[in-house]
Amino acid sequence: MILRQPKSRRKLDKVLSKTESRLPGKIEALAAFFSGIMLAGAFSPWDFWPLALVSLAPLLGLSSLLPPKKAMAAGLLFGLGRGLAQMYWLNVVITQYGGLPWAVSILLFGLLALYLALYPAAFAYFVSRTGKRGIPLLLSAPLAWAALEWIRSLLLTGFPWLPLANSLAFCPQLLQSAEWWGAPGLSAGLVMINALVMKGFFAFKDKGRICFSGLAWLLAGVIIVAGAWGLGQKRMDQIQSLAQKSPHIPVSVVQGDISIFDIQNPEKKVSVVQKHLALSGKEAEKIKKRPWLIVWSESAGPFYMLSEARPTLKVLEGARELGAYITLGTMGSVAVNGTYAPTNRSFLADPLGRPHGWYDKVHLVPFGEYVPWDNLLFFVRAIAALGRDFAPGEKGATLKAGPAVLGPLICYESIFSELALSQRRKGADLIINQTNDAWFGRTGASRQHLSHLVLRSVENRMSCARSANSGISGFIEPDGTVHQLTGLFTEAVQTRELPLLKINTFFTGHGDVFSKAAFGISLLLLLVTLRPGFRNKQEV
C-alpha cells in the first residue's frame, strides 16, 4: 500500500523547492554577504580604499555563474551586508535624538538597508542575464552600476549616499577624472577594475598553475590603476599651479559644538550667537587680510534672522566689529499661497553690519523638513509631530562675498552633484557647506557626509569650506586635497586662504551625461537580451 502525502504538504514541498531553486547556496550566500561588508571598509570612517578595487569581484563572479534569480538574491545579500556595515549610525539618530525605541529603530534601519540592497540585487540580475546572452562583462557591469546609482539619486526624492566613487574620496590621485565624468564615471571605473580582478581569478581557477590569461587580466587592472594614479598626480600638480596664481580669500570655519538641546531652547538664542562671535573674535587677531569670510554652521542661528531683533543685531554688530563677512545657518520665511512658510536659510552679513543676501535650502529632508506625497502619507505629520512644511529655495542661487561667489550647500545637499553644478554655472567659485552633524553622534557618519564634498570640489574645481556644529569642519581645495579637519564634539576654529579658481570642467559644462548614457545603453542591452532567439552564452 502506497501512502500519499496530504495535498497541503505536497503544496508546501513544491513552494519550498521553488524557493530553494531561486536562492544561492550557503557558500555563495556567505560570500555575497561578507563581500558587501568588505566593501564598506573602503569607505569612511575606515577609508581603506584598495578594498574598492576587489570587493565587488565576488559578486561579479557569482552573477556570472548563477542564473539570474539566484544572482539577484546574492546581490540582495551583498547589499544588506554593505548597508548594515555602512548605515549603522541611523540607530543613533533614531533612538538618541528621535526618541524612538530600539525595536522601531531596528525596523526602520532594516527597511532602509533592504531598500538600498535592491540596487545591487538589480545589478546582479542584470549582469547574470546579459552575461548569459553573450554581452561582455566589461561593458555591462560598469554601465549598469553607474545607471543604478543615477536612479538611486532620483527615486523617492533621491538618496545618493556613498556612491562607489566615494571610496576614493581621500585618495586624491585617483579622483581627478571626476572633472570629466563625475562620481558616476569613477564608480564605473572601479567596477571595471573589479571585473578584471574577477576574470583573472577565474582564469587561474579554471586552468591552475601559471595562467597567462589570468595574469593578463590582473596586469590590465594594475596598469589602469597605476596609469590613473600617474595622470591624476600630474593633473593635481597642474591644478595646484593654477590655484597659486588665482585670487585667494581668507576663510575661517567656526565649530561651536552647541548641544542639540541648547539649539532647541528659545532662551539660548543669544548665547549661541555670542559663543560663535567669541570664537570668531579670537581668530580675528591672526587675520590681517581683508575681505575675510567667516562661516558658521547650520545651527549657529537658531532663530528667524531679520524677524527676531535681538539675536539678529548681535550677528550684524559682530560682522561690523570684526570687519568680516559672516555667513550662518538660520531660519527664514517666504510667502507661499498667501501665507508664510519656513525655510532653512544660509544668511550673509557684510563687514559694514548689513544684510547681504541669503540662500534657502533647495533639497529638503523628507519627513524632517517636509512630508512627501502628503495626500497619501497624511498620517505621518501627526505621528511625527511635524509642523508646516519648509519651502524649498531657488536652485543655483549664489551669494557674493568680496571677490568670492559663494555656492552654499546646507546639510546633505552636498550629496547631490547637480546642486553644486548649478551654482558653478552661475559663477560660484567657493562651496560653503553648513551642517549640524551632531545627530550622528560619535559615529563615522560625519566623515561619510564630508566625503561627498571632495567629489563636488573636483567635479567643478572649486574650493570648499565646511562648518559643522559638532564636526567635522575643514577645507577642501580644487585638487581634492582635504585640509585642517577638526575633531568631533569640540570647539574649534580653522582658517585658511582658499583659491578662487575660474576654470570650467567638462562636467561643469555638460553635466552628468555619463549616467544618462549608461542608463540608456544598459536599457538597450537589457531589451536586446529579452528578444526571442537571442543567443544564450555563458560569459565569464
Automatic annotation (TrEMBL):
Pathway: Protein modification; lipoprotein biosynthesis (N-acyl transfer). It is an enzyme of class 2 (transferase). Its EC number is 2.3.1.269. It is a multi-pass membrane protein. Catalyzes the phospholipid dependent N-acylation of the N-terminal cysteine of apolipoprotein, the last step in lipoprotein maturation. It is found in: Cell membrane. It comes from Dethiosulfatarculus sandiegensis. The chain crosses the membrane at residues 21-42, 48-66, 73-90, 102-126, 138-161, 181-198, 210-231. One of its GO terms (biological process) is lipoprotein biosynthetic process. The gene is lnt. It comes from the Bacteria. PANTHER family: APOLIPOPROTEIN N-ACYLTRANSFERASE. This is Apolipoprotein N-acyltransferase. Residues 249-500 form the CN hydrolase domain. GO terms for cellular component: plasma membrane. CDD domains: ALP_N-acyl_transferase (cd07571).
